[in-house]
Structure formats: C-alpha cells, structure tokens
Amino acid sequence: MKPAAFEYHAARSVEEAVATLAEVAPDQGRILAGGQSLVPTMAFRLATPEHLVDINGIEELGRLAVEDGVLSIGACVRHAAFHRPVTDGGLGAILTFMAGHIGHYPIRQRGTFCGSLAQADPSSEWCLAAVTLDATITAQSTRGRRTIAGADFIQGIMTTALEDDELLVETRIALPAADTRFGFAEFSRRAGDFALAMALVSFRLSGGVMHDARLGIGGAEDHPRRIPQAEAALDGQPPGSQAFEAAAAAVAAALDPMEDAGTSAQYRRELAQCLARRALESAAESAAA
Amino acid sequence: MTRKHDITLTINGHDHAITVDARRTLADAIRDQCGQTGTHIGCEHGVCGSCTLLLDGVPVRSCLIFAVQCVGVAIRTVEGLAQGDELHPLQRSFIEHHALQCGFCTPGFLMLAVGILENEPDISDADLRAALSSNLCRCTGYANIVKAVRAAADELRAGP
Questions:
Q1: Does domain B4-80 have CATH number 3.40.50.410?
Q2: DSSP one-letter code for B36
Q3: 20 to 30 A Cα–Cα from A141, which one of A40, A114, A264, B159?
Q4: How far, CA to CA in Å, does A107 sit from each of A34, A93, A124, A218, B59?
Q5: Is the reported ipTM for this assembly greater than 0.90?
Q6: Nearest CB neighbour to A43, from listed B45, B115, B131
Q7: How does pLDDT run across B102-117, given as a tens digit for each residue?
Q8: Tens digit of each residue's pLDDT (9 = 90 or more) over A108-130
C-alpha cells in the first residue's frame, strides 16, 4: 500500500515539463497532475513509474477562461473549479451538475479536468463531455504542439491518442448556441463510486422541433461515444416522450456494453436506455440557456 | 537509488524540516516524521477519508499527495483546531451530538467539515450530506455526524 520509489521532477514551465518528459518517458516517466487516479494506482503497485514530472507548479496550466466563444481549460484546472458555473447558460450549468458526480468533495479539490481525459477511465464524466461536446485537446511535446478532436482522443479503456512524451496542456470546448438545452443522468451503486452508465444530451429547438441533437453514452462501453442512431431519432422531432423513447431504444440497440462480475451487459444496456431518456427529459425541462 | 529531498512542511503554522523519499505520502510524513499523529491513515488509496486535512484551506486526502509536493503550502490538521483549551465549535458539536463512537474517523471528518464550512458557509442540507459522504465511518454513525456539522454550521454562521 506504499508507492514504489520514483524520481520526482517539479517542472516550472510547460517547456521544462515536456523536455523532462521527453527524457524520462522511455523509463516509464509520467506526468503527475492531480494524482487522484495515479497515486491510488501506485499505492496498489499497479503503476510503478520510475519518474514523475509534477506540473502542479506551472502557473499557466491553471488557466480557466472563456474568450472568443471558447471555454479553455488548462491542465491543472481542478474539478472543483466547476462547482460553480464557469460560463453563463446551459453549458456552465451542465458542467457544474456533472462535476458533482465526480468522486467526492476532497477528490474534486485535487483531481483535474484534463487529467481525467488523459486517464480515460470509461466511467469518466469529463471524457463523456469531451466526446459529446466535440472538445479539442492540445498536446505538447518537444516535437511541437498538435490538436486532437475529443472523439479521436479517447480510444479505449485508459487508452488515448497521447504519445508517451506528450503533455495534455489544454482542452477547449466551443460555447454552444445560446438556445442549446442540456441534460445529464448517471447511475452508480454508491455515492462517489464509478458510474455503471451515464448519458449526456443537448439539442436546440426551433419551430417546435429539435435540431443539432447530441447524445453521448459513457460508462457502458469501453469508451464514451455519441450514438448517431439516437441523434437521428431526435432531429426534426418535437421534444416529448415519443422521440425520447425512440432515441433511448436506439441507444439500447446500438450499444455493446461491458460486463463484469456484478453487472451483465443487458443490465448496462437497459440502464443506458433509461439514463438517455432521463437526460432528455431533464434537457426538455431545463430553461433554454 | 532515488534522490532524497530536504523539505520543510508548515503544519498548523509550525515549520518541520525533514528529509523524505519522493514516494513518501504527506500522511506518512506528517505522522512519522513530524510527530503529528492526529491525522489517521485507513485505506491509503483515497477511499476512506481518515487522512483528510486542509491544504491552503481546502480539504484533501493526504494519502494521495506526496510530501515533496507540499513545500510552501499551509497544512492544517486536527491538532490545529483547538485554541489552547478552547475546542473548535465543530469539536464541541461532535461531543454534544455524539458524533463519534470509536473515534478513528473523527479527525478526518472534522477536517472535512471545517474545509466545507469555511468554503461554503451557506451550504444546503442536501449538499452537506453529499459532501460528508466523502468519508467513511465504520461505526456507521453518519446521522449524528450530519447533525453535528449542521449545528456547528448554524452556530458559525450566527457568529460569536
């Protein structure tokens, strides 16, 4: 229950962090951000990195800003930063609601939004947000910077598009149109536990019908993804139980859920179906942003 | 052989100069090298909350942060709550509401509650219950812990 020995490197700038990472990555060097997933894994000796590059002292990575229609979330922005809405309207409100489902209060004071993406746990709320809301992820290494779309970034259970020598420096989410409505629903067996399934939805309304519908499911499969069949069942339809049931049924039909000792694939499928409907109902009830 | 780090931890306003391996958690450093054993260690992987303390005013799990990361940070532990013989209002409230049985989880719950109430003095009942679900009490005395923190919150808000 004690982590194995490692060399500690406190980086003072992004340049220093990626230079050190480039050096130590071949020797199992890793980035240490909030540490709320990495350190428990080290305590179990499931992870035994020989080097940790601590980015908590890099001031610019704590940046959380809304400008030019984009929400920018630096690598060291904690989950707790979302306890209050970070932007007006539906996006800020839904991120606050989602943040309340992440671990527990003290975990949220340390754990980071971007670290959650880099960890890519299938039941991560922020991974679902990044995929459903088309986030853009910026990775930096000594080879330069590149951007990766949310849906391309998360590739499987704890598997991302990041190379070993790359630091996830920032996630950007475009602010939605002002009339976008959001809904989120999640189920876990205990407060703060890993979700068995969750759904994030958004849509716009005009002329009494939905358009630009997005519906993402997390926790059920090995990585979160949007369900195009469900989105197609919403676009052009008036919001209401008929369209919502059809979209939820499309979710159930499209999923290939994970199984574990306590949870069958069928259970997760039905859970996702139910949560998709609840998220849609809550989006319909929410005041337009 | 990994490098040792000479660091100074500031706990309840007092400096402790110690030498640590990078892998040493804050919880272990505080207890074993600074002699402050009020902070308890239960699960050592961030689940039970026994080791909760305040870092620059926010409650965190001290088993999930390395001591070497805590240089220049104000650390507050249960030993810093009472002022001389005068117990902190939360400590008094825990006694009055029978919010402890074996007492093992109590330092963690106290520091969690202090952190919550200092950051969110007007917290709702529902949010308080959700926040207190962060820590485990194996005597299962949760109802009285919630009562004690609620009463202390009301007292603190009313002012002295």
A1: no
A2: -
A3: A40
A4: 9, 20, 14, 20, 9
A5: yes
A6: B45
A7: 999 999 999 999 999 9
A8: 999 999 999 999 999 999 999 99
